[in-house]
Structures are given as structure tokens and as C-alpha cells.
Design a protein that fits this description.
The complex is a heterodimer of chains A (about 280) and B (about 400). Chain A has one domain: Alpha-Beta Barrel (TIM Barrel), CATH 3.20.20. Helix content of chain A is about 50%, strand content about 15%. Chain A has helices at about 5-20, 35-45, 65-75, 80-95, 110-115, 115-125, 145-150, 165-170, 195-205, 220-230, 240-250, 260-275; strands at about 20-30, 50-55, 100-105, 130, 155, 155-160, 180, 210-215, 235. A 9-stranded parallel beta sheet of chain A has the order 5-4-3-2-1-9-8-7-6. The longest helix of chain A is centred in the C-terminal third of the chain and has 18 residues, at about 260-275. Chain B has helices at about 30-45, 50-65, 75-80, 100-110, 125-135, 145-150, 155-160, 175-190, 210-215, 220-230, 245-250, 280-285, 320-330, 340-355, 360-370, 395-400, and strands at about 20, 20-25, 70, 85, 115-120, 140-145, 165-170, 195, 235-240, 260-270, 285-290, 290-295, 335-340, 380-385. Chain B has a 6-stranded mixed beta sheet, sandwiched between helices. Chain B has a 4-stranded antiparallel beta sheet with strand order 1-2-12-11. In chain B, strands 7-6-5-8 form a 4-stranded parallel beta sheet, sandwiched between helices. Chain B contains 16 helices and 14 strands. In chain B, about 60% of the residues are buried. By secondary structure, chain B is α/β, with parallel strands linked by helices. Classes of the chains: A alpha/beta (about 280), B alpha/beta (about 400). Chains A and B meet through helix 3, helix 5 and strand 6 of A and strand 2, helix 1, helix 8, strand 11 and strand 12 of B.
Chain lengths: ~280, ~400
């Protein structure tokens, strides 16, 4: 195992040692433009983010709600490409060698670039893992298996429709952690049901020893804290992207204070996650 | 890359839903169990003679099948070459081939106990056909339609509403068919328990391309029998237009192993391939993954999807059904193009000479017929799929001809 997978494992090991859950944030590469996205990204570890998901912009994000669709649109309009996304990771990695970076997106831009070429470039840039929404286990030969071979983690989504019969197929070849999608639907559509999530995680733990992250529907520090009591990591996306959207759609446009406001929101979420010490899971 | 010729051109897809490298199941995990459930339900329905009998009964008495095979005598004389036949699928209830598939899918939905229907539509023909069958069987129906298409297809929007469907405007992306498909998928991923998604073309994740093809193949089966009855032999050439390609695969599929029959699929060249404003994914695109399948797509250097353009809203899609992509790769079907202007010309010619106002979609097929017919011998038989009628297009055509209604 090289680079990527190790960095994710080391981070979850450290979190376990601290006896707390991690905070994972999602932001789209190049949203609202390369420079501001870079300023936001660079400040995330200091604001309390433990693992970073970077969205790869795509014209047709079928599993995303309006907030993340518009983030993709803003980034693409500002000239973002796969090449620039990897440059962003390279720049980050030159300053931070510990925080895992996970690219999240759709398969076509990778398919078009060529899987082997992309994996080599992503590894060299310092990417640790990938979440590709439209690649279920039935299509593992496409990217999942080559990624594992290249030393990158392939993190799979488990959802409320993934029943016990299907779970083993979903968990085979999953590495790094498992991302549990808290509800059926698109990103940012509703809030999660904490009791349902707790029950689902208990079911997942019967099938895997991998860390379990929970995403979709977590906006407030209190929700993050509640999920942090039962999960190994909490993912927040749309709530943060909405801050960028607010600035982009305001009369004044993007202002110098935007990165700071995103970081403040992240700090509040991190306090929520860190304040919820996990009981007996360690 | 040399691709070995298969024993049969009609054997696909394989178990993974592939036609060669195309097809597959590129969907979010939330949808995967639903797609597997659909696959097994369809397998069971196919094996159940009662299902086929029920479908045949509705096709005959509700849809109005078989559709006629018509000898287009005046167009034949006009071109002075090959003998031209139209497979008259525009005479179906709702005015296009789309209802063949909708009838099959809604019977499948009922069989699966689903209680809510969703669909996407571009020109509105599939939306109207879906709203029609949903009304007939009393199921609530939501149709996603791009805001741009709603504007240019107002009569069909009103038809859908009369039929009791809710038409939801899609404001994301290019606000056309591809975005309507995205939005329908977003609905499906949200309403996993009760909803059946009636996809309108032979594309999407497996088993949709197979299932839609099978429901449309009634066109080709009838055409074969009708040509034998009329001429005592199979046609020499088949021609059909291609957006996603459901009318074309429906006509072509029963003929694929009759290798003496030449087959042409006609893509929309819009304002011309060289202008970039077209919808010709096979002619000018490359393989990629969108809407659940690998297939030829219009995309840029970064793998971002490019908006398609065609005067025909029904062909205005940056992808194509995966079976067509495979038939292209192995060379069994020749894919050609026709521009907006060529389609407009064919549209007017057919109206004047045959008294048939074709939809702008099959007008593209006719434009190719116009290209090849004159130089072919008089005993050469061309069968073209007249897959839709043109009433819906009169406003678009009036605009293009700068006529004020």
C-alpha cells in the first residue's frame, strides 16, 4: 500500500486514538474560481477539518441537488478542468502532507482522460482516494480495481436501499472508509433522521470494520455532534457550498471575506464534532 | 481496432448489459437495487405469455397497431429511383412510435406494484405518450421537461396537462432533454419505493436499452411481414432517424441478421457538423459515460458534456442508445447525418407530395432517402420509418420559414 490509502488509514487511527469522530468537508474544486477555492482549501485543516473531499466539476451531476449543481456550474464557467483540479491538490499537498484528500465526482471526465493516465496523475498530485458516484460495484473493473492497484482508496457509498443481501457486494473492494448516505435522494435535499442513521450504522458494522462516515443532510453543528456520537466521521457539503453560493449570487459578488466565513462555519462544525466524544467505540 | 463479427447481431446485451464496450449500469448505489429489481421483473414478464398477450391486446385496440406499410408513390416518382415505403408509425395513438414503449413499460410498472410514474421528455412526444398511458391506467404522472423545450413545444405541454400529468420545468443546465433526464433520475433516486421511471428512448442503465428496444421492435416485426406481403421479399434498405434511437432500433433490430438489408441511421447535423451546433454523437462524438450507460457522446476535451442542437427537439440530445454505438463500431449500420435545412426541405416536400406532414425527426430520415433514392435502381426497395407526425412542429417550421401564424 502506498501514499493515498496509508494517509487515510493513519488519519482514522489518530482519530480513534483521540476518541472522537472526524469532520469531512466537501467543496467543489474551483468554486467560485480557482484562487478563492484555493484560499478556502488551504485554511480547512486549521479550521478543524480532518479529511477533505474535493468535488470534480461536471456538467451533469445527476445525484446532486441545486446547491452542488450550481457549484459545478460556477467552477466550469470560471475555467476549471480536471488538470486544474489536480493542480489544486498538488498545491495543497506541498503545504500539508497529513490531511487526506478524496476526489468526489462522476466518471465521465476520468473516462475521457483515460483511467491509467488519471490515476498516475492523481497519485502524483497527492490524491488519496476517490468517490465516484456513478460507479456501483457492478462496474468495479472500470476504475475501482485499477485505483486499488495504483494505491488509491476507492470509497463506496452505502445507502438506505443497500440491503443486507447487497451489502457484501458493496463492501468488497471498498477501502479507506465507507460513506453512508443518510437518505434516498440528492445532496442537500433534506435533513437526516438520527435514529435511522444510528440503526443503519449498527447494521453496517456487522458487515465491516472499516470506518463509517455519514453524509447528506448534515448542516448544523448540533446535527454534526449527534452524528459524531455514532459515526467515525461526519460529512458536510451543501451547507458550506451554500455560503459560496450566497456570495456568488449577492449583489456584491465574491468578497474578500468569503474564505473566512467558510472557515468560521467549519470551526463551528468542528467544535460540534469534537465536543461529542464517542462512548466505547474507540 | 478490428472487431470480430458476431454470430448474430441480435444477441446483445450480455449479462452486464453491454453491447460491446457500450451500455452497462453507471448509476448511483441508491438506484442499483431498483435497476436489478426492474431487470428481474422484466425477465419474468418476458417469460410470461399473459404479459405479451395483454400488451398485444392494448397495442391493437388502444394504440392502433399494426401501423400500415405505405407505398409513397409520388415521392418515388419525384426522386425517379428506388421504390419508397413508409412504415406509418405516425398513425399510432398520440402520433408517434413512443407509445409502443410506454404501453410496455406501464404494464411492467403495474406488474411490479408501482403507483407513481415519472418520465423525461424533449419534444414532448414521449411525455404525451407517458401521460396518456398513465391516464389510461389511473396512475399519477410527473413529466420533467426542460424550460427551453416547454417554450418551443407548448401544444404538447398543454396536451400533457389535459391528460392529467404534472409537467415540471427543468431550469438546470441547458434546460433541454439531457437536463430533463438528470432531473428525472434525481426524482427516482428520491422516490425509490413507489416510482417507476418510464425512460423514453433506448438508452440509460441496463436493462432500459434492451427493454425499450424490445417494446419498439414491434415496428420491425410488422415491417418485415408487411414487406413480404407487399413485395414478396425484404427491403434492400432501411432508413430511420436517430436521437436516442428508439424508433430506429425498433425498426432495425428484427432485420439485423438479414445482412443483405442495408441499414442507415440518420443523426441530426443541426446547422452543420462543422459549426459544432448539431446532435450527431456517432458522427462527431466519442465514447463516454452519461445517464447510466457508456455510449458515444458530444463532449469537450475535459469530458464535459456539450449541448446538442437540432431544429427537432426530439433529436436534440448529446448521446445515443448504446446498441447503436455498438452497431456503429461493428459496421452493421451506417450512420449518416442530415441538417436542419435538409430536414425542413424534406418536411415540405413530403407534405406537398404525399399529404403527410411528417415530424421533424423522420424528416431527417427522409432527407437521407432524398439523397440516395434518385441514383438507386427502380427495383430497389427503401423502407423508412415515419415515426411521428408533424402537427407538433408547425410552429417551429413556421418560424424557420419566417412565416407569421
Amino acid at each position: 500500500m502506498s501514499g493515498g490509502a496509508e494517509r487515510i488509514a493513519a488519519r482514522f487511527q489518530a482519530l480513534r486514538a483521540e476518541g472522537r469522530a472526524g469532520l469531512i468537508t466537501f467543496l467543489t474544486a474551483g468554486d467560485p474560481n480557482y484562487e478563492v477555492a484555493r484560499d478556502i482549501l488551504f485554511g480547512l485543516p486549521e479550521a478543524g477539518v480532518d479529511l477533505i473531499e474535493i468535488g470534480m466539476p461536471f456538467t451533469d451531476p445527476m445525484a446532486d441537488g441545486p446547491t452542488i449543481q450550481l457549484a459545478s456550474r460556477r467552477a466550469l464557467d470560471a475555467g476549471m478542468t480536471v488538470t486544474r483540479t489536480l493542480e489544486l491538490v498538488t498545491e495543497f499537498r506541498a503545504r500539508d502532507r497529513e490531511t487526506p484528500i478524496i476526489l468526489m465526482g462522476y466518471y465521465n471526465p476520468i473516462h475521457h482522460r483515460g483511467v491509467d493516465k488519471f490515476l498516475a496523475e492523481a497519485g502524483a498530485a497527492g490524491v488519496d482516494g476517490m468517490i465516484i458516484v456513478d460507479l456501483p460495484p457492478e462496474e468495479d473493473a472500470e476504475l475501482c480495481l485499477p485505483a486499488l492497484q495504483a494505491g488509491l482508496s476507492f470509497i463506496r457509498l452505502a445507502t438506505p436501499t443497500t440491503d443486507d443481501a447487497r451489502l457484501p457486494a458493496v463492501l468488497t473492494n471498498t477501502s479507506g472508509f465507507v460513506y453512508y448516505v443518510s437518505y434516498t435522494g440528492i445532496t442537500g435535499a433534506r435533513t437526516l433522521d438520527e435514529a435511522q442513521v444510528a440503526a443503519s450504522l449498527a447494521r453496517l458494522r456487522r458487515h465491516t470494520e472499516l470506518p463509517l462516515a455519514v453524509g447528506f443532510g448534515i448542516r448544523e453543528p448540533e446535527q454534526a455532534a449527534a452524528v459524531a456520537r455514532v459515526a467515525d466521521a461526519v460529512v458536510v457539503g451543501s451547507a458550506l457550498v451554500d455560503i459560496i453560493r450566497g456570495a456568488a449570487e449577492s449583489d456584491g459578488g465574491i468578497d474578500a471575506g468569503l474564505p473566512g466565513r467558510v472557515h468560521d462555519a467549519v470551526r463551528a462544525l468542528a467544535r460540534g464534532v469534537r465536543g461529542a466524544r464517542m462512548g466505547g467505540e474507540g | 481496432m478490428a472487431i470480430e463479427k458476431p454470430n448474430s447481431y441480435r444477441a446483445g446485451p450480455d449479462e452486464a448489459g453491454r453491447f460491446g464496450i457500450h451500455g452497462g449500469r453507471f448509476v448511483a448505489e441508491t438506484l442499483m437495487p431498483l435497476i436489478l429489481e426492474l431487470e428481474s421483473a422484466y425477465e419474468a414478464a418476458k417469460a410470461d405469455p399473459a404479459f405479451q398477450a395483454e400488451l398485444d391486446d392494448y397495442l391493437e385496440h388502444y394504440v392502433g397497431r399494426p401501423s400500415p406499410m405505405y407505398f409513397a408513390e409520388r415521392l418515388t416518382e419525384h426522386f425517379g429511383g428506388a421504390k419508397i415505403y413508409f412504415k406509418r408509425d405516425e398513425l399510432n395513438h398520440t402520433g408517434a412510435h413512443k407509445i409502443n414503449n410506454c404501453m410496455g413499460q406501464i404494464l411492467l410498472a403495474l406488474r411490479m406494484g408501482k403507483t407513481r410514474i415519472i418520465a423525461e421528455t424533449g419534444a414532448g412526444q414521449h411525455g404525451v405518450a407517458t401521460a396518456t398511458v398513465a391516464a389510461r391506467f389511473g396512475l399519477p404522472c410527473i413529466v420533467y421537461m426542460g424550460e427551453t423545450d416547454i417554450e418551443r413545444q407548448k401544444p404538447n405541454v398543454f396536451r400533457m396537462r389535459l391528460l392529467g400529468a404534472e409537467v415540471r420545468a427543468v431550469t438546470s443546465g441547458s434546460r433541454t432533454l439531457k437536463d430533463a433526464l438528470n432531473e428525472a433520475l434525481r426524482d427516482w433516486v428520491t422516490n425509490v419505493e413507489d416510482t417507476f421511471y418510464i425512460i423514453g428512448t433506448a438508452a440509460g442503465p441496463h436493462p432500459y436499452p434492451e427493454l425499450v428496444r424490445d417494446f419498439q421492435a414491434v415496428i420491425g416485426r410488422e415491417a418485415k411481414a408487411q414487406m413480404l406481403a407487399a413485395e414478396g421479399r425484404l427491403p434492400d434498405t432501411l432508413v430511420a432517424c436517430i436521437g436516442g434511437g428508439s424508433n430506429a432500433i425498433g425498426l432495425f433490430h428484427p432485420f439485423l441478421d438479414d445482412t443483405d438489408v442495408a441499414i442507415y441511421g440518420v443523426e441530426a447535423a443541426g446547422r452543420g457538423i462543422e459549426t459544432g451546433a448539431h446532435a450527431a454523437s456517432l458522427t462527431a462524438g466519442s465514447p463516454g459515460v452519461l445517464h447510466g450507460n457508456r455510449t458515444y457522446l458530444l463532449q469537450d476535451d475535459d469530458g464535459q458534456i456539450i449541448e446538442a442542437h437540432s431544429i427537432s427537439a426530439g433529436l436534440d440530445y448529446p448521446g445515443i442508445g448504446p446498441e447503436h454505438s455498438w452497431l456503429n463500431d461493428i459496421g452493421r449500420v451506417q450512420y449518416v447525418t442530415a441538417t436542419d435545412d435538409e430536414a425542413l426541405e424534406a418536411f415540405q416536400l413530403c407534405s406537398k407530395l404525399e399529404g403527410i406532414i411528417p415530424a421533424l425527426e423522420p424528416a431527417h430520415a427522409l432527407a437521407h432517402v432524398a439523397r440516395i433514392a434518385p441514383s438507386l435502381p427502380k427495383d430497389h426497395i427503401i423502407c423508412m420509418n415515419m415515426c411521428g407526425r408533424g402537427d407538433k412542429d408547425i410552429f417551429t417550421v413556421a418560424d424557420a420559414l419566417e412565416v407569421t401564424l
